[in-house]
Amino acid sequence: MRCFASWLRTHNALNNMNIIGSLIKKEAIHIVRDRRTMIVTLFIPLVLLLLFGFAISTEVNNVRVVVVTDRHTDTSRAVSQALAVNSYFSFMGMAPEAMVEPLLKEGKIDAALILRHDGASMPHQVIVDASNPSVAQAAVAYINSVVSPQVSTAPAIITRTLYNPQMKSSYNFVPGIMGMIFILICAIMTSVSIVREKETGTMDLLLVSPVRPGAVIVGKLVPYFLLSCVILAVMLTMAYTVLGIPLSGSVVSVVGVSLLYIVLSLSIGLMVSAMVDTQVSALIISAMLFLVPVIMLSGMIFPVDNMPVALQGVSCIIPARWYISAMRKLMIQQIPVTEVATEVGVMVLMTVVLLGVQLRKFSSKK
Question: For residues 147 and 127, what is the distance between their CA atoms, to the nearest angstrom?
Fold first, then answer.
């Protein structure tokens, strides 16, 4: 009797494995056949990484600046030379003080540095176009950093920039882009796939069959999980090669946390599929409902700490916030994975809750 029970359990397990394998094969064939979707899915991450890595940048470059001085000295020439060779500036030469305001009004310069001799010191003044406050603040900081060592008699202040010494904005954007890509692609693809089955009636047949709900969920998630792994490999390869993010021993941790986030994103797709009955609705909800919060509240572009307390609380339920925070620590600061235990714990909790809720919903329909 015990042997029979053992054989029956083994037979059922093998049968479930065959069913899951069939579901995975069916979904994989559908993905491969839809070549346009495959191309878009693999192409979008590359385009976004290149855009935010090279075209879109928060760095301020080519600040057009002139120098005004009442006396040409070795110090004024050293300051002019320092501005001319600095890659952040476009040195426009010397100009009389009366021409500074007209040049600013006409948009021919962005800032002017005025050097006046006063005994042994040379106090300086910076006049800048502040119509764009972020550019104006960066320009003033750049000019002060170049001029202060040349004109100050006090000991120079030595500044060290850790983790991102070149101050590249791509270092900050790459984790954010990864967080946005996975939650959008995984959620959209999974939700549309399951809703398509609902529209054609295939899902109802699966639910009334002996197939367990867990097998249905696994069969739907695995193909998209594998495709997301390919996207992850491509994005990390570009990040560490093309964009120049330093490669370190934390790569294993980066991959592990990313795989967890992919599963979480796929779980969100399951949640969306349970909310709607048409592919168009699933596409709109997945794209629009998650796109704006990910961009605005996840810390991808705007720091979470600068937000009002209420919005900081709202951002806590956005999975991308925790993933982006963990990726910045692992990829840029290159700290051990133990230092992101909070972020990982929150993502694990979200994944377990979402998968548990969806599994219960599928079970209730049988």
Answer: 14
